[in-house]
User: Fold this.
Amino acid sequence: MNRLIFGTLAVLLAASQWGCQDDPDAGPADGDGSGDDDTDPGPSGSTADADHDGYSPAEGDCDDADADVHPFQGEACDGRDTDCDPATAQEADADGDGASVCEGDCDDADPARGPGDGDSDGASTCDGDCDDTDPDVTPSPGAGGTGFVRGCAPAVSASQEWDGDFVAQATVVQTDGGWRMYYRGHSDANLNAIGLAESEDGLTFEPYEANPVFTLDGATWESGGISAPAVVVDEADATAPWKLYYHAKRADGTRVIGLATSADGVAWTRWGDGPVVDTGPDGAFDSVNAHTATVLAGGGVYHLWYSGKAPDPSGEGDAYAVGHATSTDGGYTFVKDEANPVLAAGDGDAWDSARIVFPQVSLDGGRYCMVYAGSPDEHYYGIGYAWSLDGVSWSRSWDEPILEPDADGRWDGAEIWSASLVRGTDADRLYYSATENVDAAPAAIGIAVNRAPSVDLLGPDEGEELGSGEDVWLVARAEDDDPAGLAVVWESDRDGVLDETPPDASGRVRPPPVSLSPGTHEVSVTVTDSMGRAGTGRVTVEVSGL
Assistant:
């Protein structure tokens, strides 16, 4: 008896040790066909493929009864773990930002990236919006919005060997074939040169393969460097319709303006053996430097505006201002305006009180529009705006820059300077130079697009019928970067101007009530921003007679 019991236990222990015998009472409880008592049909299970999906439990199939579940299936957003990896369950919100992968989260490991459009600018962080709290910063400045909307990244940056260290100071011209941008580039191999980039829509630019198109000639009077191109196209000049006015630096450091001409805007030839605009005499506003030009041509006259620099009369630092000169021989010789300077730095503690440089002028109808770089100290703070009816007498539209550095850490977060403004029928495009770090980061060129304020006319209602002498409440809402800086005009096509009360800081426009004469009126409200771009709302109302 004792021998029999001992012998049976020995056999059972041996079977357990060598794995040669399943538990006959357990059966294939896990469905893996192995006959063991394992309740896990996972990788430790059978090599059989029960659902014929090409993967067995031993190969990671977590549900060998469902052919749509296996390690390489991928998640289907159907509530199941179809890829047999709980860590990739797309229905779950892994980063706690309120959205799962199935709900469009492009990075469910980063709560800062998600599909929501927090600032209602039409783009989420998953779309590339670098600041989803600011509607004026988007992946593309060509998107909607009012006021100046800028892109999250520069439009043109260092990309070729010749401009590897520095890209800035753009001027943009429209041609029949699209848009051309001329800009300054710098690298160890090039002590400043002029490059070209081209675009079909004025928003996306591709550098010209044969850049640079204009380089320094170190053996001439401009041996110190060239930069700040200003390009004008004059079809009246059949020989050289393209003219490039550029900032040139003499060996002694004096900065003046040179000229090159071209038949196609690509191959350039220097004109003359010296500058077309030189420094002024002692005591003049441009006695130290006369540089960074902008030029308009038309009606047989070239208008040139430029930066002037002179010693500050107080003996502290330098004084900066903008001068004006004209040419009547096709832009080759210029006469300075006796009224110079035509625009000086701001007074007192104004944001542009220390310097005003890099003027760029465009023409919008009969109005000259100037953008310039300004600063209250040695760094550039942003872009200012002024306007004129004759190009000589200038008025600032407001006492703040129209564009200033963005948040710290962004590519344009430190300085903004040297802008080129192109007025359009639908929007203004501002091409500006900026840098992330004034001490180290290279400069690049960005685009900011300004559209007219949006206007929602809330009262009176369309088709409203009013009694004679009845009070009419004029109510509208305007959306823009600076609602308090907008100008508002209410008009009736029968009674003329009704009111000009500006909006409050929230954009609400609600002047005192007015009365209208009997008859049918088209009532309009026009809201204009500081750059002259306007939005309008209209309704028709009927006023009964006496």
Summary: The first helix runs from residue 2 to 18.
